[in-house]
Structure formats: structure tokens, C-alpha cells
Design brief:
nine-stranded antiparallel sheet; 24% helix; globular; Lipoprotein; signal
């Protein structure tokens, strides 16, 4: 992927997350002292509910804890979570793919002009790391390189209604934006194809896409292929985007989604993700 000068990340992620996940608040021990679960929650950066509001032992589990800035960072993937020689980088927030910059040709949508708006929104979101829209809560992002391929992950908190609507919108794009043309700088034409991609059965809801952009790069023909996945857990989400001019990264994206979702769930449960993954395929 080619780079462009840095500007604030909105998110892929869209990276291409990044992202969000499930489960329960710790129970009060009934005393005035701080419990071990409270200490673990603070170390993971998760805001815990007041003791008086916690679920008594034996009662149904409470809502997941609120994601914090520290929690979002703790939930991010590490090199240990990925197979295949991925190296973590420090400037993932500066990644931008110039092949994603272009104006959608409205003439490709003779019967539904609104489809052109959706396809333009997709390109803009992929370029600006805003696949799930602007987070309403904390957000953290990381990236990895493997040769000429890149993998971007974002973990963020969102408004529940807006997050569900965005995931539903993503699922419509393989039909709405099956194939269209975008015009880049200088009038260069690019053919964009959008297909559905499978996502591991993790989290509360999910959506996956494969986006292929055929155009010119560095004076010759090039095809940018991106595998994209987003998973919701309660009001948080993990977004992962991987690929490049050498093709997509289906296996790595699926692995990143599994591990990223597990790390987020651990944080929301008040724990600290292990430095080593608990499950590897």
C-alpha cells in the first residue's frame, strides 16, 4: 500500500479495526476493601461500576464494563497474536491507500443513484479508517507489516444504535456496490469490486467484505485487494483490514479477528489479555 501524509485517524478500521466485545462486571465482595477483580479491572483500563450497583453473587450477570482509553489500547493485537511473520509498526495511523481516492461514476448506477452515494462512502471510509463511522467512545489503533502487505486493527467504543446500523449497511454493499468505476486524480479510471467475505463466528454481530481496486500505481497497472472485517461486542467493536498490492490476507484477517475479539472480551470482563494468545489455529 502507498502512504500519504498523516492526519487524524477516524476509524477502518475503515486500516482498515478497528472495533468490540462482550461480557460481565465483577461482583462485589460485600466488604469495603478492593477485590482482586477490581484491581485487575483497573490494570486493564476498564471502568467498573460502583459496588452498590454490582450484581450480587449468584444473580444474572450485569452489563459489560465501559471501554476506556487504556482498555482500548490493552485490547489491541500484538505480534504474538499473529502468525506469518507480521511486524508491528509505529506509524499505522499514517497509512493511506491512494488507489482508494476517487470519485464514483454515477453513470454506473442508472436505476439507483443512491447506490453511488453508498459506494463513495465505502471508498472514503476505507481511505480514512472510518468503516464503522466515528467512534463515540475511546479508540485505539495498531498496524503490522509483512513484506508489501499491511494489517490494520482498530478497537473503539460506539453508540449501539449507530454501530448496528453501520454493520447492517456494510452487509448491503456486495449487492449495492458489486462493481463500479471511480475516477482518480488526472482522470485515471479505477474499477472497484466488492464481495462478501466470511467472518469468524465471534462477538455479538459481524460483517465482512473483500474490496478490489484495479488502477495504476507507480506508472503501471496495479490491483489493491483488501480483506475487511468488523465485529461488535456490546457497544465496542474490533475492525481489521489486511491486504495490499500482492493480494488479500484472508487467513491473517480471520486470525486477527478471533484474537482481537478475545482480547477485547477479556478487557471488558475486567481482565488483562495474556501476552500469548489463548487459541491459535
Amino acid at each position: 500500500m502507498s502512504r500519504r501524509p498523516s492526519h487524524p485517524v477516524r476509524l477502518l478500521a475503515s486500516a482498515l479495526a478497528a472495533g468490540a466485545l462482550l461480557t460481565t462486571a465483577a461482583c462485589s465482595d460485600g466488604g469495603g476493601s478492593q477485590s482482586a477483580s477490581d484491581t485487575a479491572a483497573e490494570q486493564a483500563g476498564v471502568a467498573r461500576p460502583d459496588a452498590a450497583k454490582r450484581t450480587p453473587t449468584g444473580s444474572p450477570s450485569a452489563s459489560p464494563a465501559t471501554l476506556t482509553e487504556a482498555g482500548a489500547k490493552a485490547a489491541l493485537l500484538t505480534e504474538a497474536d499473529l502468525e506469518g511473520g507480521w511486524n508491528q509498526v509505529q506509524d499505522a495511523d499514517k497509512w493511506r491507500d491512494r488507489l482508494l481516492v476517487g470519485e464514483v461514476d454515477v453513470a454506473d448506477f442508472l436505476t439507483a443513484k443512491s447506490s453511488a452515494t453508498d459506494c463513495q462512502a465505502l471508498l472514503d471510509a476505507l481511505y480514512g479508517d472510518g468503516l464503522l463511522g466515528d467512534p463515540s467512545g475511546p479508540s485505539a489503533l495498531t498496524g503490522f507489516e509483512q513484506g508489501d502487505s499491511r494489517l490494520l486493527e482498530q478497537v473503539a467504543g460506539y453508540d449501539r444504535g449507530g454501530l448496528d446500523a453501520r454493520l447492517k449497511w456494510l452487509r448491503t454493499l456486495p449487492d449495492t456496490c458489486d462493481e463500479f468505476t471511480a475516477t482518480g486524480a488526472g482522470g485515471a479510471k479505477r474499477t472497484v469490486q466488492v464481495t462478501e467475505a466470511s467472518v469468524p463466528e465471534v462477538g455479538d454481530a459481524r460483517a465482512g467484505l473483500r474490496v478490489s481496486v484495479q488502477g495504476d500505481a507507480d506508472g503501471g497497472p496495479a490491483t489493491l485487494t483488501l480483506d475487511v472485517a468488523a465485529v461488535r461486542v456490546d457497544t465496542s467493536a474490533v475492525t481489521v483490514m489486511g491486504g495490499g498490492l500482492d493480494g488479500g490476507q484472508t487467513d491473517s484477517v480471520e486470525q486477527a479477528v478471533r484474537q482481537g475479539t478475545e482480547r477485547l472480551k477479556t478487557v471488558l470482563d475486567g481482565g488483562t489479555p495474556s501476552p500469548q494468545p489463548t487459541t491459535m489455529d
